[in-house]
Amino acid sequence: MTDMPDGLSFLPLGGTGEIGMNFNLYRLAQDGREHWLAIDCGIGFSGNDTPEAEVLMPDPSFIAERSRNLCGLVITHAHEDHLGAVAHLWPYLQCPVYVTPFAGAVLRRKLYEAGLLNQVPINVVLPESRFNVGPFDLQFIAVTHSVAEAQAIALRTPHGLIVHTGDWKLDENPLVGPKTDLETFERLGKEGVLAMVGDSTNVMKEGRSESEADVRVGLTELIAGLTGRVAVTCFASNVARVESIAKAALASNREVMIVGRSLRNLETAARECGYFTDLPPFLTEQDARDIEDDNLLMIITGSQGEARSALSRIAGDTHPHISLGEGDTVIYSSRVIPGNEQAVMGVQDNLSRRGVRVLTDRDGKVHTSGHATGGDVRVLYDLVKPKYSIPTHGEWRHLTAHAALAREAGAEPILLEDGDILNLSPGEVRIVDTAPTGRLALDGGRLLPMTGGVLAARRKMLFNGIVLASFAVDDEGYVIGNPKISAPGLLEVDDPETMRIREEFADAIDEIPDELREDDLLFRDAARTALRRALGRKLQKRPLVDVHLLRV
């Protein structure tokens, strides 16, 4: 990479070819120096293919090695898949962070919890401002999305103008925040745009986006006809949706309670930044027993079936303060992120088992996407007229659908995956190199590589189980007493198969040659082989095997 000529290039390290983990880099080389700019740094959630992990994030190793040349990290908006990894990955990046006021309020809480608040240089940039990060001349452009203060970015460079859309949609009545600034996009188009790097999540939906105003009407009508306790679950960062739910509740003489830490953090950040000014402070879950059922509406986290979320615990009747049952209703004011279907269905099933009525967007106008439809995307291409289109933020089917729309609009699409280094200038616009990529899993307070030994072992244990053997030997290496075999999640202690394995293992240890018994390492390796042999083929699995040797 270092021997590339001066110029401009683009490198996605997360979010291109997948949903979530958005992490994009631009490289500007001039006067013999290399300058990098990062845009967004988000998390992803584990799906059915990664049960050994819950929260994922992109591996920053490539840019961490070049952190001295990283001018800054710019956050387009306050969704988890765009800023949720900052508190975990910033120690690798060590650069200034640029945010709007609302994204800054959300980020500060995350940094405080991570003990980094006083270390990270945060620069608050007003929406629709023009500012510099190193040699990058940047301009925020207001766009509508399902979070306050979402911004697209125009990057002006000596090699051309790049439009990085972030997440956006068209909405004539977004309720919170301004409409997408099509006049500015049109001016950029007249200025001449080399490439547009754009959101692909919802391009497969035809027509134009529906309005948040329609959702507010739909929620108000639906809630007005309900009795008993009503709970609504939505994405915690969607300020407009939380406001819509609250106003729909107040219209039905229901007081509003928020349940879940992320929603409490959202309320604090939103009120700090001047949102929710015409709403009374929300109740907390400790207030639940003081309100009549017909006068209460709860906004609850957990729309994606997250195991430790408030809604999952309520559905499993393990929440310390909230319970729902016969005569109560839960409304899902959200979509299911691909990969979360099974978890969401499990929570809904548990709610139904308790007699709770579950309503989704099939039952009323209770949700609309915050991402641009195919119709929205066509409008933007007609205004921006980029020479090249670079679809990002989506799985491969989303990227290819976006590419087809771009080609129809007269742009030349270039399909990338995470790790592809795209030369934008000078010369031919093409993939010229690849950067190492990967995923890290958040495991408690640790970051572990998904391909590393710890998670590989956990994955094997999940599907094949684990067998542990322990035995004691004397100074000369002869076994004392009987070996112990443990196979949690695979065999019962008194299972005949367990007894067979223990006996065969004991016989096999006795046959280990004397010369191997003197060295604990060699003895343990030989015993491990003996255990595998004793397991045989009857289990039709290849469990993780380990042996504990105690010399007494």
TrEMBL record:
Top-level division of the source organism's lineage: Bacteria
Q: Which UniProt keywords apply?
A: Exonuclease, Hydrolase, Metal-binding, Nuclease, RNA-binding, Zinc
SMART domains given in the database record: Lactamase_B
Kindly indicate whether the keyword Nuclease belongs to this entry: yes
Q: Which PROSITE patterns match?
A: UPF0036 (PS01292)
Q: Which InterPro entries does the record cross-reference, listed alphabetically?
A: Metallo-B-lactamas, RibonucZ/Hydroxyglut_hydro, RMMBL, RNase_J_2, RNase_J_b_CASP, RNase_J_C, RNase_J_CS
Pinpoint the Metallo-beta-lactamase domain residues.
20-219
Q: Which GO terms describe its molecular function?
A: exonuclease activity; metal ion binding; RNA binding
Q: Which Gene3D superfamilies match?
A: 3.10.20.580, Metallo-hydrolase/oxidoreductase (3.40.50.10710), Ribonuclease Z/Hydroxyacylglutathione hydrolase-like (3.60.15.10)
Q: Which CDD domains match?
A: RNaseJ_MBL-fold (cd07714)
Designated name of the protein: Ribonuclease J
What is the organism field in this record?
Neokomagataea tanensis
Lineage of source species: Bacteria, Pseudomonadati, Pseudomonadota, Alphaproteobacteria, Acetobacterales
